[in-house]
Every structure is written in C-alpha cells, then in structure tokens.
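User: Before I run my own analysis I want an independent prediction to cross-check against. Here's the chain; please return only the structure tokens and, at the end, one sentence I can use as a sanity check.
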Amino acid sequence: MATTAQLFEEPFDADEYIERLAWRTPGGGSKGGAEAFDPKRLLDEFKSHIEELKQLDEKIQRKVEKLEDQCHREAKEFAHKVQDLQRSNQIKEAADIIQKLHLIAQELPFDRFADVKAKIASKYHDLERQLIQEFTAAQRRGEIGRMREVAAVLLHFKGYAHCVDVYIKQCQEGAYTRNDVFEDTAALCQRVNKQVVEVFSSPETVMAKLIQNIFENKLQAHVREKLDGTRQSDAEQYLKNLYDLYTRTTALATKLTEFNLGSDKHTFLSKLIKSIFSSYLESYIDMEREYLRNRGAMILQRYYDSKNHQKRAIGSGSIQELKERIRQRTNLPLGPSLDTHGETFLSPELVVNLLQETRHAFERCHRLSDPSDLPKNAYSIFLLLVEHLCVDHIDYALEIGLSAIPSSDAKNANLYFLDVVQQANSIFHLFDKQFNDQLMPLISSSPKLAECLHKKKEVIEQMEVKLDTGIDRTLNCMVGQMKHILATEQKKTDFRPEDENNVMIQYTTACSKVCAYVSRQVEHVRKSMDGKNVDTVLTELGVRFHRLIHEHLQQFGYSSMGGMLAICDVAEYRRCAKNFRVPLVLQLFDTLHALCNLLVVAPDNLKQVCSGEHLTNLDRNLLHAFVQLRVDYRSARLGRHFS
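Assistant: Structure tokens:
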C-alpha cells in the first residue's frame, strides 16, 4: 500500500489506520479470508511502512520549513512596505506642515521671530533637499509611482523647478550613444514624453523645458563644432554643413510638434532654431556670394588653362580692340582674323559645373534665407550666374568667334562660328531651364521677378546682336567662297562655245562645285540652328545665293547653245535650292530659270515669254537687261520688243 498524505486525511484515527494497513496486507487480516494469517509477513509490511512514514515525514518537514522561510520573508517585505508607506505619509505630512509654517513665517516680523523663521527655513530647505534626493533615487530605480508621489509633494515647494532640472539632466544620461545627435534626440523625446505624462502634473511644461535644454546645449554645441571649424578655412564645406544642419534641425522640430509643448509650440520651436542659427544666417548670403564668385572664377580659369588659352581683354579700349570691332561689323580688310584652330571655347562640362554650383546655391538660398530676403538673395545669385556663364563664358566665346571669322574674300576659309552658335544655343537652353525651374519659384510673387526678366531679356538681346553679326559675316564668307569658285571655275567660253555643234548639254563645272559647297553649308546651318532660326538663316543664305548667281549670269554674253547651258546651270542651282526647304528661295530660282529662257527663246516669242507666270510681274528693265545678254541682241533687233 502506497504511503500518501491521503491516509492521514482528517479525522485521523490511529487504530483504524493500523487496522486498514493490516487488512490491505495479504495474510494479515485478523478475521481470516482467502489466505491464512501470516504474522511474519505482516511484521515485514509494518517495518517497511514505518520507513516510508519516516521518509514522508522528512519530506513534509522540508516543505514546512520552506513555507515558513517564505512566510518570514513575505512578512518582512510587508513590514518594510508598511514602514515605507508610513514614512511616505510622514513625508507628506511633514511637507504639508513645513509648507504651511513656511508661509506663516513669511508674515512674521523679523526682529521678534528671527530665530523661529531661521529654523523653519532650515527645515524647509532640508526637507526640500531630501525630497529631491528621493525623486532622483526613484528615477534611477525606474519607480514611476514613487517619482509621481514625490513630484506631487514638491510641486508646492520652491525646489520643484530644480527637481525638473534634475530629471531633465538625468534622463539625458546615456541617451546620446549614436553618431547622429538628431536621431538620438528624437528617440529620447519619444521615450521621455511617455514618462512625463505619468510623473508630472504639467507634462507639457517639462517637455518644453527638456527640448529647450537640448537645443541650447547639445544641439548648439554640435552646430558650433561643425561650423566654426570650417567658417574661415573651407567655404564650400561650411555652406554644405550649414544647409545640412539647418535642414535636419528644422526636420527635428517638425517631429517634435507631435508632442504637447504648450499653446504655441511652433513659435517656441522657431525661436529655439533661431537662437542656434541666427549668427550664421545673418552672414549666409555674403558667404554664398563670395563662394560662388571664387568658385565660378576657378572653374572658368581651370577650363582656359586646360586649353592653354590666355583670356583676351574684351572691351579694353585699345587700338587693336577698335580695329577688331570695326572688322567684326564690316568687311574692311583690317588685318588677319584670329586663328582659333576650330576651338569654340565653349565647354559643356564647364557649363554643367557652373549650373550645378548655382543649383546648390538656390537650394541653400531657399532654405537659409529669411522669407522677406529670399527674392533679393536669389536675384543676387542669378546675377553671379549671368556674370560667369553668360558674360565670362558665352559672350567671351562669341567675341572670340567673331574675331575668328575670316573676311569675305578669304579663300577656303573654315567657318567655325556656326559651331559656336550651336553650342551657345544648347548652353542657353540649359540656362533658361534653370531660370524657369529653380529661380522662378523663389521670385515669382515678388517685385524682383520684373528685374530678373529684364536682366534675362537684356542678356539675350546682347547675345543675339553678336550671334546675328557673326551669322551675317559667316554668310558673307559663304557667298565670298561661292564667288571665288565661280571666278576661278567659270570660263567666258562656257556660254559662248567655239563649236556650237559639239557641246554636251549639261551644267558647268563651276555650277557643280558651287552646288556641292552650298549643300554642305545648308547641312551645317541645319545642325547649328534650331526652331525658326533654321528657316530664317537659310532664307537669308538662299536670297544671297540667288543674288550672287543672278549677278554672276549677267556678266556673260550668251549664244544660243550657251543660253541652253545657262539654263542647265540654273536648273541645277534650283535643284540645290530645294534643299533649303524655303518656298521664297525656290520661287526666286524659278523666276531666274524663267529669265534664262529669254536667252534662248525665238525673237518672235519674247513678248509671250515675258508675260508668262514667273515674269509678268517683273520690272521690264530687268527683262530687257537679260535679253541684252544675247549675242544676237543687235542683229535680231531684240530691243524693239521693249521700246
């Protein structure tokens, strides 16, 4: 039979217990049964059961001792808690008493109660110090309830503000473990905000004081460390750091607005930011302009150094400058043109660098400028971009390009100015894009908008004057080259062959070479221009091309076969003119082709041809002049048709 506690269930009877034990043992029953009585077996069972009872007794004794120990500990802990509560109440009671005594003592006359007042004040300060120490200890132990109790008692003491200061200092201990002061601050405020709601009766005041403490100490020290070291030595890094620090500080302030900081938390946070950055922001735009001025000059100088080019002084007022200006605007031979060896002195890489620096400056200006100063500051940055990009680079390249355009009578001249035009246009598109994308949003609602637009218009007009001058002189050179080809390749006998019966009817060599040259220049213009400028320039080139051929044809006399050859040449010129894709140019050559028919038409048909579609509106003197070019003009009395 197993020995268990069940055998000792109340009410317990020893005789009954032994009787039950004997009865359950085989051969141990006193009244007989299936087996005969066996005293030895019963004795063995008793001995065994006695051992089990001893073991059970030891086990129960150990459990009893354990429970007794636990009971003693719990009793001790309970006693401590009771004592703590009693002490807590004595603190509250004492605080209440000393607080009242302190208030009463303020009313007592000093001369009669000086000693009493001093004792009360001493007790007041001692108790106040003990409360703050108790609060600090509870904060270190993380006992929120105790902190709340002590804070509630201290609320009526002068030292309550000191208690809050101690709390703020202590809660920052170990909070800044990462390298990111802004992330650490956000995490700290998130954690503390939950705690102050449970501890303090005015959590918004405590949170505001914590944030003020962080801004005026931790953040301000961090900002000074980052900025003061680079302010004089590295302007670029200083401006980058200032932008980054100010951006991250304002972003942190935005996060902090989710906490209850009082009635006007936005103004409160703005003042804190201003207290950190005001001295830096006051001088920001001066630093920005100085940096951009130096950086732009360095980028430009680095480019010209890479080209081994010493910048020429433009507008110096020298005799050479005057001669160059005259030569640029006229076709007077005032000496050789500047040889640039095909260099345009325009650099896409330089332009990208200048625009990128300006883009960063606009971003910093937007972030760091006072709203009232933003348009003015953005305009000053724009003026520096105009100076470096438009004046010092594009305008200078146009001046050099103009100086490199050869005179119109130059032979086999290389015309690089159209390449300058192409690159200048591409650059100005980038300039215009930055103007619209980055400058306009900063000035669109201010009077500075009109100034910016006026300045941009002024820059465009100045460049257009030089572009127009350069294109005009380039077209003169093209016409001069055509004239040179015609002068060297066109023979007088081309239109008055010695053997009229042995002539191949095709265009002349001079015509072939001129058309080939013109076709190349048309393609060059198309690659160099964009939009309506292509048609404008090709129209002007086509008109000059037509005028040259018209005047050229009037220098010769034409036999009947020569007239046919002239018509072939003009037909080829007209085919070349189709490449211009300008209706006016094609119309001019259609008319010229019709005029050339006057060189071969039978005398009796002159009047009919002159009244044709292309010639009917032309001046009769012009028609007469063309007819006079025929070798049979006098013999056939052709003049009578125009009398």
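Sanity check: The radius of gyration is 54 Å.
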